[in-house]
Fold this protein.
Amino acid sequence: MIDVIVVGSGPGGTNAAARLVEAGRSVLMLDFGNRDAHYANLVPSRSFLQLRHDDPEQHRYLLGDEFEGIPFGAVRVGAQLTPPRSYALADAADRMPVEAPGFAVSMSLARGGLGVAWGAGVFPFSDDELRSMDLDLATMQPHYDAVAARIGVAGAQDDLLPFYPPSPTMMPALDADTNGTELLARYQRHRAALNAAGFHLGRPRIAVCSQAFRGREEYAYYDLDFWADVGRSIYRPMWTLDELERMPGFTYRPRCLVRGFVDQQGSVRVEATHADTGVPERHEARALVLAAGTFGTARLVLRSFERYDTLVPVVSNPYTYVPTLNLGMIGRATRDARSSQGQLTAILEREPPQHRLVQAQVFSYRSLLTFKLMKELPLAARQSRRMLQVLMPCFAILGIHHEDRPSPAKTCMLRRSPENGPDTLVIRYQPSEAEERTQREDEAVLLRCFRKLGCIALRRIRPGNGSSIHYAGTFPITREDRPLTCDRDSRLRGTRSVYLADGSVFPWLPPKGLTFNIMANADRVGAILAERLG
Amino acid sequence: MSDAALEAEARIFGHYLVGGTPEPAVVARYCAASRALWPAPPGARDAALLDFVQRRPWSVGPLDAAAALLDPGGLLRSKVLVMSALLEATPAHADDFLPRSASAPALLWRLASSGTVAVLQAAVGALLYRLVGRARA
């Protein structure tokens, strides 16, 4: 019998599987496994500026063959889901129906899951944050290190070190672009006053190779990160999956849609259907790791337990983005060679008694194209274009994440399909007025600090609940022995051998990116299982 | 809409946005995009606006400026957006859309001149917008 079945090939599934296979366990990965067969080879491997000037086919991947890359209407979620990335969400809404008024749900059935469009931010939780989740840094550190060594992380030892545990294998940080360099220089001049206000600025930690690493190329600064995976420099779960497929003991089974599981004495049976034919399949293993994404896993667990109409909590980082005008950039020539990722990371530490953190990523704007900004201005398009051309080099776009904690107004449940179709996941998410007020106040303080750096906020844009695409907390780790929760090992209570390795297990979300923490916990699940199955 | 009408529209929007006639390939792409994105005939008000623009190409700037305020999600504005996207994704027009550094005086001049033109266009456009609507009624 296979040792472990892993459901899902995203950041959690691949890192749990990698740890298990490295430990000599046999793993069967069940995955829907959508791939991009359309745009993958269209984007030339040269700089954004070069291809804009000489590639006559650029309209195909920049706008999409069906013009799906032209957004109409209000600012929407997932600006980074350009046509070459849009396969990340394909089929998910049809196969896994969701009813979520006022809450944006992004789910993936792609090979690599939502990791195909990951912003690659590496933000490990601190000891305090982990302790409030019934975990601790001593437990998690070896897994942060193992994942960093597997995926490749670039970063700097700077003012952000107190907020992110260090990594021994960290590669040098990517070079900041002109915007980032200018802001960092200004921060150094005002550092003492800003630190006293709880504001800290540094280079982001990113899952990218600033040096050649595990067959992946050194980052080329082509500014194509939203469009292509040049040289595989930025980490995607597919790179780990490709490695796993070359290793003995690992089997990847795509086109498989898992429906549920039965936890039996000594084994777990998984029920699935073939994605294309609908033919039922059964697979059996000694243990099961669910890593289908927070909402995918919620669907599987609630269905398998027959817990229809049972509310479970859900959390999601509130997200605001703020275009600012960096006055220090006026008249400055910008470098063409740059990354499209966050150039800087800011942390705002609120004074006690709040003890809250707010995190912002600072982006420049170029490769997501000018016309998308033109529609945001209430001006004639021609004049918008002329103004944006000279303003864009000065834009520093802040992506602000707030923490999120569970409440009775943030829930999801599974509603049984009245016919033979798929069940519907019903999400109700309504933050309290107090939470929203706190977030506005925190943003005001953060923007005051950025003003000291010469960044004038133009607008505050809230794309809406769920727009961070960080979802968690449905089956949280807790010491309390309650149904529909996980024990400290991420084992689902009420089962002997079912483990969760995605966002489901985190009871609340610090204002940091979740993905790296999912990977580290998945690695921990792999290590626990490898030992237990000894 | 007929091919000829779509092609005329493409040339008007292209000239308005970048000051020159777009290449035939961009015109063809605009026609394909229009058919894919708006397969149904436009509503009466949108049809009247587009017809007005076709007959008086000089009006596209003012009407676009007015639509930016009065009907930002409307068909005219959406069609101008599509043409902007197609021009931006064409090597010949890349430099019309790519960011460029400007000194403080140059930046201020660009903002002031474009802003003034935009305000004047919006004022004229708002009147035209009403006239076209009234004519339809």
Q: What stands out?
A: The mean pLDDT of chain A is 95.
